[in-house]
Amino acid sequence: MPPRLTFSFALLCLLLGSTLAVGADAPPQPPNVIFVLCDDMGYGDYGVFFQNMRKENADRAEPWHLTPKLDQMAVEGVQLRQHYCPAPVCAPSRASLLLGVHQGHSNVRDNQFDKMLENNHTLGTVMRGAGYATAAIGKWGLQGGSAGNNKSKQNKPGPQDWPGYPTKRGFDDFFGYVRHRDGHAHYPKEDGKEVWANDEEVSADLAGCYTADLFTARAKKWIVDQHSDNPTKPFFLYLAFDTPHAKLQLPAAPFPAGGGVDGGLQWTGEAGRMINTADGEPDSYMHPDYANQTWDHDDDESTAEQPWPDVYKRYAADVRRIDDCLGDLLKTLADLGIDDNTLVVFTTDNGPSRESYLPENYEPTFFSSFGPFDGIKRDTWEGGIRVGAVVRWPGGAKPDRISELPSQSHDWLPTFAELAGVAPPAHCDGTSIVPMLTEQGEQQTPQVYVEYFNGQKSPGYQEFEASRRGGVRKQMQAIRDSDWVGVRYNVQSHADPFEIYNVVDDPKQTKNLADQLPDVQQRMHDAVLRLRRPNASAPRPYDDELIPAIADSDAQPGVKWSTYAANTPWLARLDDLSPEASGDAGTIDECPEIASSQSQLITGMFDISADGKYTFTLPPGVTAVLRLHDATVLDAGFAPSDDETTGTIMLAKGKHPFRLYWRGSTRVPKLTLSGPKQ
């Protein structure tokens, strides 16, 4: 069950405190939010998480690179060292982030690049509905429709052909790559890739523009324009870099001096020189910290060191460029006087890759970009899914802290919703981490869950445990339970046991504790059935398993109802609010009527008399969401359907807890259940 949190009085006081300087009568100003997402940057690539330790060790056989701006952000903010991505590859990871659901509920799973992001509430719709200006800048890859051939001059698809285009998913403005594959190269004009600015394709004007610079300059311009045009309106910016992923191209010029509003990267608006680093030669500028680096290639101090291979210089320079871009953004906020009340998140979409798109291949072993873990991109070991995050919010989060709270990308939607003063949509799986950030209120533990398929094998790196070198991936699954993580590779059936590791004491996952923890094994087996729903586009060997009932001792007769003021444009996850009225009833149908302006949450148990397949049905025109255990069985919360809404689920005999959220009419919707002996 998604944990119960409220928009707390403590948070309200905190927001008031950050705005009192404006005037005694000023209303609380929700924070601006900037979410920075990197592409294929590993946990081990953060200086503050791992690279700085390599530098301190000074082992010339173990090269390091630096992220000084990110390190400073960590000093001024909170490190989330146990933050996970939803899936170990970009498209499903980004889909879960945007939808606020884990991979057991996302419509984009496995390797479904360019698939349409479900027409449901997103970070964009929620923040816009809360009164924010919204923008997505950078890589998208969730547009649906025809990806098309972007080199063709005729019949080129555009936003009108892409049902999942960002401006159709809650974002007022979009600038960036639409197609997943376009993000594999970082000079749009020179590489023949399309960049869209809302409804206009603009790559012809982008000569010499390196995408990390381009997206940062555009983001700075958007922030400055928002602050100038409407300084009292909060903004939400989703800035999704396409680097250091794929083709390891270099910037065209040194990073401009100064940073901020008047320095650093600048958007000129001039065709052919759209940004102020476009004058240089594409793919030419190597950061001086890495240009002449050498290393002890044979781990023998008696032999001469050799230069870093070019591909690793490039990788270090690309990460450093992101770091410079981050510093430029933070300086812009300070110059505008809004950094105190702007929350900035920096994280990455999955673990490090082994790609360069150059003749010389790249391996993440050179810098140990997977950090203290095993696994890379497309693995569900910690190195593939634990990505970490850094959060900076001077006006709301005390600095220089390390949080060991487990969390996952789908937790950002309810977190940002709480900061904006609204409850998240009912379909949301995440848990707000505002109490952890502000040190105010009770923090509930988020649910960390991953499912993923990949037909390749894990790399055979000597740095990894021998048992998993070259291991078959195929169907994979991971779930966190307290300090334990359960992992399954090459899953053949639900009976397959989880390997269980205490990732707090054993982050490299070297000691399988499964034989010592039969109760945890059973909890994990039950939980992964109770929290997810099958998706026909990504079949799993456990899709047809019966969902286990709860113990009879935990069941209570009848149902409970609570009625709430509907203060959001969507059907809210009402657990997060305080009810106007509540009570008990014998059945769902006996719950009281509500006003058309209200919403209601009904909780109880379905008593299933026999194992089998069951179908739940809601009539047309109903706005409602039904959850069984933690699985969303019916989702008509975004918009009422003209047809019946149905959901089929395999249930074991016994008691199954449910939560029915509904609004938009005065009478309780007629929920029907059909199945064996019902």
Automatic annotation (TrEMBL):
Source organism, top-level taxon: Bacteria
Annotated organism of origin: Allorhodopirellula heiligendammensis
InterPro entries to which the protein is assigned, alphabetical: Alkaline_phosphatase_core_sf, GAG_Ulvan_Degrading_Sulfatases, Sulfatase_N
Keyword Hydrolase: yes
EC number: 3.1.6.1
Record-linked Pfam families: Sulfatase
GO molecular function: arylsulfatase activity
Keyword Signal: yes
Biased composition (Polar residues): 148-157
UniProt keyword annotations, A-Z: Hydrolase, Signal
Stated name of the protein: Arylsulfatase
Location of region: Disordered: 145-165
Region forming the signal peptide: 1-23
Enzyme class label: hydrolase
Domain Sulfatase N-terminal: 31-422
